[in-house]
Amino acid sequence: MREVTTIAAEARSRAGKGTARATRLTGRVPGVIYGEKQTPELISVESRELLKEMQKGSFFSRLFTVAIGSKTERVLARDVQLHPVTDRPIHVDFQRIGKDSKIRIFIPVHFLEQEKSPGLKKGGVLNIVRHEVEFFVQPDNIPESISISLEGMDIGHSIHISAFKLPEGIRAVIQDRDFTVGTIAAPTKEEEAAPKAEAAAAAPAAGAAPAAGAKAAPAAAAKPAAKPAAKK
């Protein structure tokens, strides 16, 4: 199960562009916590701390505890607005998550033991159709990822969601079909041609070099210099 990260926050008394701008000048990012039929709460978080959590990956599928003084809120990040030039966060939205809530969330997919796939050994390609799959899940049951081993999978093999051993308490949002998550595809013409092109490029260079052990052709014998004509 996922580790819950705590983010320190401060309460904000007012909303508005001017207040938000003043908050950013202090090195903090304005934000809001909403949901669970409660009044939205205005907050700010330290810019560097928020950016560090965003850079860890899976930011929108990780549980956080936001600590506002002695009060805490369990939340999911739902939106981050970025500066159009610097790409730094300028506003963040968090959704409250109740103990008995069932949330809709994307979970990363990992393909393991790729070295044991006969198809990949033959030059096949892992074609990932879905890097993440959306699930309904209770907050305490959110897994870090779902994974499957590629051992024994040959070219042409399709990997459907039913092949995954899912943790208890989660259900795919798509229920009307056994959708494809990945395939082992045959190499493309470009990938097949690349080794041949490399071999063809190396052939002229190899042909230009003398074969190992071969003797160099003898140089043509020099003609003797002509004798000067006798004086009469």
TrEMBL record:
Large ribosomal subunit protein bL25 beta domain residues: 102-187
Domain Large ribosomal subunit protein bL25 L25: 8-94
Single GO cellular component term: cytosolic large ribosomal subunit
Matches recorded under SUPFAM superfamilies: Ribosomal protein L25-like
GO MF annotation, one: structural constituent of ribosome
Annotated keywords: Ribonucleoprotein, Ribosomal protein, RNA-binding, rRNA-binding
Segments for region (Disordered): 213-232
Subunit structure: Part of the 50S ribosomal subunit; part of the 5S rRNA/L5/L18/L25 subcomplex. Contacts the 5S rRNA. Binds to the 5S rRNA independently of L5 and L18.
Protein name: Large ribosomal subunit protein bL25
Source organism per UniProt: Ferrovibrio terrae
